[in-house]
Amino acid sequence: MSTGARAPLPEVVPDHIEVLRIEMALARPFTSAHGTETAKEVVLVRALGPDGSEGWGECAALGAPTYTGEWVDGAEAVLRRFLVPAALAGRPSGVVGHPMASAALEAAVLHLRLAAGGTSLAAWMGAVRDRVACGVAVGMAGSVDELVSEVAALVGSGYRRVKLKVAPGWDVEPVTAVRSTWPDLALGVDANGSYDRHHVEGPLARLDRLGLVEIEQPLAAGDLVGLAEVARRLDTPVCLDESVTAVTDLETALALGAVDHLNLKPGRVGGVAEALRIHDLALARGLPLWIGGMVDTGIAKAVNVALAALPGATLPGDLPASRRWFAGDLTEPWEVEADGTMAVRPLGPVRLPGSG
Question: Structurally, what CATH architecture does the domain formed by 3-118 represent?
Answer without folding.
Answer: 2-Layer Sandwich (3.30)
